[in-house]
Every structure is written in structure tokens, then in C-alpha cells.
């Protein structure tokens, strides 16, 4: 197959040319022979598909050392692990109607005002006027401006403080690359596992200490019912970075204005930087802050990361943003935002333009209305779950400002409870200890689900724990 | 503004509540007073917008040290720098018809067979049946399978070796995070700046050495007309990682089968890992390899990263993939793909589902046909540019297997030629030295442009250099 320079090639075929396939084929045979002579037993034993990948069982290793930081990580990342257990359960009970209130994945369709804007943008890309190539790495100007005016009006956050992204998880990793391996970090215990895991990967931590279930050189800030899920800062050591998620995943608790003011003061006194994860801010009611920048002085000590995932069902569409105020400075006075901009320009090429069109539609009056309805729906689910566990005599936390219910099973192992619930009700939850040692004895029940499924799951919970 | 748990809130307003804005306002005044008392002169001098961000001029600095690796980077990332120069030129000549043959951004509309699939997927997200939340971090199974069969048929690359991403640039950064700071790397000189810059950011390099325009601890593999743009491997020191882009950006040259066989042998002898950037593979004609995996044994020493950007005009849609064969092992025998999977799961949540629907449409028979036509169109542009410079007596390279023409201006500074062309023809190109010191004396002319613009640019080149 060849493409000439001046003529379109109308012969459509797989791109690996037949000549190269033949070439490869010949060599595979040669390699196979070699393999058999080198390690005949292994080859015979492990080999499953000789015809397509005969080199699989060779003993060749590069001389590149495995990244020791990644080797420190424990088992699998939590949510894929839960996915595996769910899959195994479905194999075991092929006829069971499995309901997932586990990984916090949205289930409700995206409002049409938003998807029609994305469809329009997609179709427009087929026209000369509607086509656009590389966008600004930081996001489209109009979207950045609209994010600033919608979420940060009167808070002094401006369009150029906002970096649009493909989601908070990606931005958390980019923030770790930004700060590098020489900073220290604190994290709520329990917390969303990506903070700790990304910190381990970038090399900020020591080894995992099995006995206490913590990594060395991370400050775990215990958040339990005893301290109203807000760390006792008098016992927290100074770190460079403080990850703080509110409303919190997994506990569902939201820090009050007074608590956040304490946190900002703590950061300011220590010269620390807060990375504030506000992915659930729209679930907040009343005067509880929706942004860390509602706290005076926060712009000098905080970064905020946010997402459309849980407001508009964008978990699969992928769109979020991170605010790095120009007031935030390193110890030498250099603006953090300038370096973050460099990270974004070097390692990211902007969020999908179609997703950004969706984001803009989310922020139209109709889009905001529609997102409030989606959030309201999941909050109704939350209430149903809270009421169910409460009626069964459990102590539950969260569920007011967040789509997560944190159910206490005193004295029991979270994974045991997870397994019990899965085995007996076919409902997937998330074991609290997966979020950190202080999550032991809790199970997180997510309110993301179709109403029928939430009601059915609650019926089964009542059956199990009556 | 408050959202009750059980009732939808139909009052739509900016999310920062008015109460909190008032609260913030009060405190800003307090802060301002404080600022003035601390550093009155500075505050008075720098202050631009007291009403909205009165803290901007404060002297507060955190105690967090700036990441020393990022501080090593030189000036701006190349392409934003060119964007700035273009913008300055347009300010200077507001009436000029500026043509960009600079950053390699696609200009032609995306074929309808592809955008209609994306629009359909987007609209489907508003339905119960069509909605999907978090996808697999590695990409949708169907797309991975189709990528394997389309691009790697008979090459032994399987569905689970392929990680779908939001583009090659993001994957290059993720690969740097994968290998970490303790590996050494080699790169073609000249090359796409993201390889070197991402290596600097992750901490693999020494300081920038101004006299030789190179970073310490990077092996620059000179690729010039003298060596047919293929490094003299007998002079290249062993490194852990070898970045290799073919067809090459910026030189437009594509390594032959024999050259790539040498490269694979070199990697194998040294136990190195090749990161092969094949973003322009569809521009290749004849027997020149389109994938490193056409070379026998490459699966044990190579990773390949690829993209839909330059085939389907997806520069703004964002979709690519990276192949990490299960045969590729670290020195301790651990599979590299297992760690890459962990990186992807921890720091990425998959490419946009709408973009993935577009990717699948790209690989349908109609989509492949349409992509070949897009590629064919840009190759026609390339020929026009090659012929123009050749007719003017210039020696040009590239332009056969790639949409880039590498024009030689012997003895001249690349930035001077860039400026001369911009000033006198209003055409944006890219200075060769921006890709590395061996690019000095060259200018890259991109063939991405509407036909009229390419013809007009060539008319102006003929005027300037007649």
C-alpha cells in the first residue's frame, strides 16, 4: 500500500501494509525458534497464543530500572479494585441484579440543553466556519470568563486565574508534577485515594508502613466523628501542601466557614499551599462555603480544583477546571500560576473543544437550572439512603452537602462489610478503609443511581439489617 | 441561596452566594488596610484594580520552594512563544492577511462521517440507554480492539496493549511520570520540544547550558542532512530512554526500515526503551515503516505513541493512543505496561467518550477513506511548498512522508529568517532552532492550511526570495 503525494489513495485497508506484515511474519518464526531454544519449558508452559504474539514468553529484559516510587504503591488503585470485585461477583451470580452505589459514577442522562450544544459543536467541526484546531491549553476564553463570573463573582478570581481541564483527577496529577518530589504533603484521612497515590508516584513519600497503613512522610489529618470531620490542626505538622476536599469524598461532610477560616489561617501561618478539591460544591446548601476563595486571604494560600462531573453527569465527557490565583507565590516570590501554566502548556493540549462547548452550555441560565435539577435529584437519593440506614439504627454521617453517605459499622472491618453487603444484597458500596486508615469501620454509600435502583438497594439493606 | 435536600431549587443564580460575597467584601477592606500599613509604597504603586482584587499587591509569600526543575526551563514553550509573536505582528499590522504555516495546526474540517458519530454520541448522553459515566481509564474496549486491528494487524499488538488517551502530548508527560527522575534520556536534535521540556520538568536533566543550547544529562542525537537525518549511533551514549519521532517533526524525514532496525538493535544491545512518536504515520508512503512494531523484536524495547490529530483534524477534539506491549520489561522483569496502567488509572480518567465515538468512526471503512483524503490533501499542500522553495533555489528536506518542509537557510539564524518571513510576507513559520541546536539555519514550513492560503503564502515566498 502506498500513498502518492498528489493523488488521493482510494484503497482503504488496515494501515500496517501487507508487505510489512509478511516481513513481520517471517521474523516471528525466526524469533519463535530462538525462544524455544533459549527457554523451551517456559515457552511451552506459558504460551497461549503462539500465532499472534510469539515473543510474549521471551526472557528479554531492558536495563531500565522500575520507578521505585510506583513500586511503593499498594495493590491496585481503589476503584479499579472494586470494579474487579464487582465483576467477579457478577461471574459468581450471573442472574443477580447487581446495583452499584460504589465508585460514585453518575447515572442520570445529561440535560438536553447541554448535549445539544455539544452535538452542535461537533457537527460544526465539519464546516469551514465551525472548524477549530488546537485551542488554548488553558481553555477557551469565553468558558474561563463564564466560570469566573458564575462560581467566583465578587471573590476576586479572574478569567486568567482559571485553567480548564479534562477533569479534577488529571489536574491533581498535574499539580503533583508542578510541585515535584521535594515538597511535603498533608491529606485528610480518609480521603479520595488519588491525592496519596499521585504523591507517592511523584516521589514525595516514604515507603508504605503496613502496620499503620500509611505512607512515610505524609501527614494524615484524621477526620472522624470525634472531631466533626475537621482535623485538630494543633496536632498537624507543617507541610508544604495540604490537600483538602470539601464537601468531602468519602465522608460527605462539608467544612463550615469557621473551620475553613481556621484552615486558611493555619496555611498562612505555616506558609503552606492548600489544594482545595471542590468537586461537590454544588451540593452545598446554606451558608457553608462553596469555594475556598470565600475565605478572606485564601487567594494567597490556595488552589481550587473543580469539575462538571457531578453536576452535569460529565464523568465520561471529561471537563473540569483549576483555579490558581495570581496572588499565590512561592517562597522566592515567583507566582505559582506561571509555573502551572508551563506545566499545562508542556503536558496538556486543552480539554476537548466539544466538551468545552458543553461546559459553556452548563453555565447558561438553562444549563445552570438543569444542573441544579440533576444535583437536586441526587440529593433526594441521598436522603432516601440516609433515612434507610438511620431507620435501621445505624449512625450515618454526610449526606447533607454531598452525595455520599458515610455509614458507621463500629468495630467491623470495612472490607468485611463491603463483602457482606455485596454477597447478600448484590449492592456494590465502597469500603471506608480504602480511603485511609481512619475510614476503617465505615462504608461509603454513593447516592449516584437511578431512583428505582436506590429504592431497591435500600429495600435490600432493610432486609439484610432489619 | 440554599438548596434543600428534597426539593429542586428553581432559583438560578451565580453559585457564590450573595451572603458570602458580602462577607468577602467586608474582609477585603480589612485586608487592604493591613496591606497599606505593611507596604504602603508598593501597594500604591502596583495597584490596578482595588475594587475586585485588593490583595494582588500584597507581599505575602508561602514558604513552599519553587520546583527547581521547572525553573531550569528556558523562556516559554516554543509554540506559545510563536503565538505571542504572531499576535504582536497582528497588532503592528492590523490590516495584514496573516497566514499561519507555523505551529502545525490542522485547518480542514473533520469529515462528516466522524462528526456525525460524535454528535450522535453526544445526543445519546441525554437518553437513559445512551448515557454512560466513567469509562475505562484505558479507553473503550471496542476502540482499543479496532486500533489494534487497524494499525497493528499481524504485528502482535493486542487490544490490551493499547491505552487510549487525550493526545500524544499528554501521554508523553504521563510517560515521563512513569519513568521518573532517575532515568537518562536521548532525543533527536532537532525534535518536538515537549520531549525535552517534559524531561526537564520531571527532573531527569541538568541545568541548561547556554553556550551549547543544551540541557545537561540529555543525549542529543544530531539529525542533519549530513547523516540523512538519522543519528550516528556509534557516537550516541547509552541512555535508559530514547525518544524517536518518525516521520519526524520538524525535519519531515522518515526513518527507513533499515535505519529503524538499527535503532531497535541499538536499544536492545543497550537495554534501552524507545518511545516512538508515530503521530504522522499515515503520511508515510511505500515500504517505509508506519509503526516501530514492524521491526522484529521492537515489542521488547519500544513504546509507541500516536494520535488522530493530524489524520482527522482532531487537534481540538483530543484523541490519541499509546501502545505499551506486554513484552516490554524493566530490568527486574516487571512489565512496564502494568505500571503505565497504574499511572493512567491514578492520574487520568480516560478520553472524552464523545471523542472516542469519533475515534471509532475514524476507523470505519468510510472514516479511514475520509482520513486518507484529509492526509492526501495536506500532502498536496506539502508538494506545493516543496516545489516553491526548490524553484527558488533552496535546498529542502522532508515533505515526502510528512506534512513538514524543512528549508535550509545556510549560515543564517533561524529566528532571523522567521522574523524576516513574518515581517515581509505576513506568513508565520517555525524557526528550526526552536527544536534544538541542530535545527539552527533551518525553518519549518507546515503544510497545514487551506489551499488558498498555502498558494498565497507560496506566492509571497516567491516575491520575497525571487
TrEMBL record, chains A, B:
Instruction: State the Pfam families in the record.
Output: Aminotran_1_2
CC cofactor = pyridoxal 5'-phosphate
Recorded GO molecular functions are: pyridoxal phosphate binding; transaminase activity
Keyword Ribosomal protein set for record:
no
- The UniProt record lists the Aminotransferase class I/classII large domain at 97-461
State the superkingdom. Answer: Eukaryota
Report the InterPro entries cross-referenced here: Aminotransferase_I/II_large, DapL/ALD1, PyrdxlP-dep_Trfase, PyrdxlP-dep_Trfase_major, PyrdxlP-dep_Trfase_small
Q: Does the keyword Transferase apply?
A: yes
Name the GO terms of the biological process aspect. systemic acquired resistance, salicylic acid mediated signaling pathway
Q: Which UniProt keywords apply?
A: Aminotransferase, Pyridoxal phosphate, Transferase
Q: Which PANTHER family match?
A: AMINOTRANSFERASE
**HAMAP family in UniProt:** DapL_aminotrans_1 (MF_01642)
The Swiss-Prot or TrEMBL record describes its family as follows: Belongs to the class-I pyridoxal-phosphate-dependent aminotransferase family. LL-diaminopimelate aminotransferase subfamily.
Q: Could you identify this protein by its name?
A: Aminotransferase class I/classII large domain-containing protein
Amino acid at each position: 500500500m502506498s500513498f502518492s503525494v498528489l493523488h488521493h489513495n482510494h484503497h482503504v485497508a488496515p494501515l500496517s501494509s501487507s508487505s510489512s506484515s509478511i516481513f513481520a511474519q517471517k521474523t516471528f518464526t525466526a524469533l519463535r525458534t530462538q525462544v524455544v531454544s533459549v527457554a523451551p519449558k517456559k515457552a511451552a508452559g506459558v504460551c497461549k497464543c503462539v500465532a499472534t504474539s510469539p515473543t510474549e514468553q521471551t526472557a528479554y529484559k531492558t536495563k531500565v530500572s522500575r520507578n521505585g516510587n510506583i513500586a511503593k504503591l499498594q495493590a491496585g488503585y481503589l476503584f479499579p479494585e472494586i470494579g474487579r470485585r464487582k465483576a467477579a461477583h457478577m461471574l459468581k451470580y450471573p442472574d443477580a441484579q447487581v446495583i452499584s452505589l460504589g465508585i460514585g459514577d453518575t447515572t442520570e442522562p445529561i440535560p438536553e440543553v447541554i448535549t445539544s450544544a455539544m452535538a452542535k459543536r461537533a457537527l460544526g467541526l465539519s464546516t469551514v466556519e465551525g472548524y477549530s484546531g488546537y485551542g488554548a491549553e488553558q481553555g477557551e476564553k469565553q468558558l474561563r470568563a463564564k466560570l469566573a463570573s458564575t462560581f467566583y463573582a465578587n471573590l476576586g478570581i479572574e478569567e486568567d486565574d482559571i485553567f480548564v481541564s479534562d477533569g479534577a483527577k488529571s489536574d491533581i496529577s498535574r499539580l503533583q508534577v508542578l510541585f515535584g518530589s521535594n515538597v511535603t504533603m498533608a491529606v485528610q484521612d480518609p480521603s479520595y485515594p488519588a491525592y496519596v497515590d499521585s504523591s507517592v508516584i511523584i516521589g514525595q513519600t516514604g515507603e508504605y508502613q503496613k502496620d499503620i497503613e500509611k505512607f512515610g512522610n505524609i501527614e494524615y489529618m484524621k477526620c472522624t466523628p470525634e472531631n466533626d470531620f475537621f482535623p485538630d490542626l494543633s496536632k498537624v505538622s507543617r507541610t508544604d501542601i495540604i490537600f483538602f476536599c470539601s464537601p468531602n469524598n468519602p465522608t460527605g461532610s462539608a467544612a463550615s466557614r469557621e473551620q475553613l477560616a481556621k484552615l486558611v489561617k493555619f496555611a498562612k501561618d505555616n506558609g503552606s499551599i492548600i489544594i482545595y478539591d471542590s468537586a461537590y460544591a454544588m451540593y452545598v446548601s446554606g451558608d457553608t462555603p462553596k469555594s475556598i476563595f470565600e475565605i478572606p486571604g485564601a487567594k494567597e494560600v490556595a488552589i481550587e480544583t473543580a469539575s462538571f462531573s457531578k453536576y452535569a453527569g460529565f464523568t465520561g465527557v471529561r471537563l473540569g477546571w483549576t483555579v490558581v490565583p495570581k496572588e499565590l507565590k512561592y517562597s522566592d516570590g515567583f507566582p505559582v500560576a506561571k509555573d502551572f501554566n508551563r506545566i499545562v502548556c508542556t503536558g496538556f493540549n486543552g480539554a476537548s473543544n466539544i466538551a468545552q462547548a458543553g461546559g459553556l452550555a452548563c453555565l447558561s441560565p438553562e444549563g445552570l437550572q438543569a444542573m441544579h435539577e440533576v444535583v437536586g435529584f441526587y440529593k433526594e437519593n441521598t436522603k432516601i439512603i440516609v433515612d434507610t440506614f438511620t431507620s435501621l439504627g445505624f449512625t450515618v454521617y454526610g449526606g447533607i452537602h454531598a452525595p455520599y453517605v458515610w455509614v458507621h459499622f463500629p468495630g467491623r472491618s470495612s472490607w468485611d462489610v463491603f463483602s457482606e453487603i455485596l454477597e447478600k444484597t448484590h449492592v456494590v458500596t465502597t469500603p471506608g478503609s480504602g480511603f485511609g486508615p481512619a475510614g476503617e469501620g465505615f462504608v461509603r454509600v454513593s447516592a449516584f443511581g437511578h431512583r428505582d435502583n436506590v429504592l431497591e438497594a435500600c429495600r435490600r439493606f432493610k432486609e439484610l439489617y432489619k
